Amino acid sequence: MIGAEGNQLGVMPLHEALKLVEVQGLDLVEVAPEAQPPVCRIMDYGKFRYLQKKKSQGGKKKTTHVLVKEVKMGSRTDPHDLLYKVRNIRRFIEAGQRVKVSVFFRGREITHPELGREMLNRVLGQVQDITKVEIEPRLEGRNMSMLLTPK
Questions:
Q1: Where are the alpha helices (DSSP H) in 63-143?
Q2: Is 2 within the bounds of a domain?
Q3: How many domains does the chain divide into?
Q4: What is residue 149's three-state secondary structure?
């Protein structure tokens, strides 16, 4: 048995421990049930659970969420529209976000994946000064995509 302040109270029968807990107005919590004899502690269990929850939330606060932005374009996207997409990619990369650049194929366009690879290489050429390629261009179903990260 361990007391409310952390002091050892020794081995005692359950009915004595329950009387002691009732007098103090706290809870009897089994800390190590596999020990011989089992170890119990006198504590305010509600407060203990509250502090544990706060401690786990404190760890969540310190984590940073890395967003992956996605920029989609067709395999026949106009050069002016491509410049607009590249400007958005630059904005995302400068904000420290990762960007997934996807080229989608419609209908029979899938028979010419080299057009999509050429489009991705054109985009990469325009943003190569501030990014590096994390995942090389690869075909995934009807989409070809690559992942860019800030340098």
A1: 79-94, 113-127
A2: no
A3: 2
A4: strand
Parent domain of 31? 14-61
Which CATH number do you get for residue 24? 3.10.20.80
The residue with tokens 């029968």 is: 13
Nearest-5° angle of CA 73, CA 114, CA 128?
A: 60
* pLDDT tens for each residue of 63-89: 667 788 999 999 888 989 999 999 999
Look up the pTM and report it. Answer: 0.57
- Shared domain check, 96 and 34: no
**Coil, helix or strand for 112?**
coil
Q: Which two tokens stand for residue 67?
A: 């967003």
Long-range contacts of 135-144 (CB under 8 A, 24+ apart): 139/113, 142/104, 142/105, 142/106, 142/110, 143/102, 143/103, 143/104, 143/105, 144/102, 144/103, 144/105, 144/113, 144/116, 144/117, 144/120
In this prediction, residue 144 carries a pLDDT of 93
Among 61, 82, 116, the domain-final residue is 61
> Is 132 part of any domain?
yes
